[in-house]
Amino acid sequence: MNFLDRALSVLLILGGFGHTLGSIKTYRADPMSLLWALCASLFVFLLAATNLVRAGRPGDSALGWICLVFGACWIVASLRFGALEGNLFDARAMIFAVITLGLCAMSVRTLLGR
């Protein structure tokens, strides 16, 4: 399970790179929107890094709670993005939501002490 935990974190990092490149391409002419999109990329990188640390510290319940709460927030934000795009099942939103849902499940596993 530790491999899956780390693999999901790495996938989230790769998604963060994709988000960063897509944001630069899409919002190049709109600096304010680009700033906020890059802030979202930063959040993704921080969430992934925190989950990587949590994967190596199975007994750290505080870290488990942090990853769970912020992961749930990212799922909501991803699904809201899809809704704003007019397609709740937008591939970009669903990829982030599914990966983060897996990380949230791993956070619950950490909280249960397994």
**What is the straight-line distance between the termini?**
10 Å
Number of domains: 1
Low-pLDDT segments, ≥5 res? none
Give me the Rg, rounded: 14 Å
What percentage of residues falls in helices of 4 or more residues?
over 70%
Q: Give the assembly state of these chains.
A: single chain
Question: What general form does the structure show?
Answer: elongated
Order of helices and strands: HHHH
> How many strands, what sense, and barrel or not for the largest sheet?
none
Structural class: mainly alpha
Q: Mean of the pLDDT scores?
A: 96
Tally of separate helices: 4
Number of strands: 0
Strand content is: under 5%
Structure description:
It contains four helices and no strands. With 114 residues, it is mainly α. The protein has one domain. Helix 1 packs antiparallel against helix 2, helix 1 runs antiparallel to helix 4 and helix 2 runs antiparallel to helix 3. The radius of gyration is 14 Å and the shape is elongated.
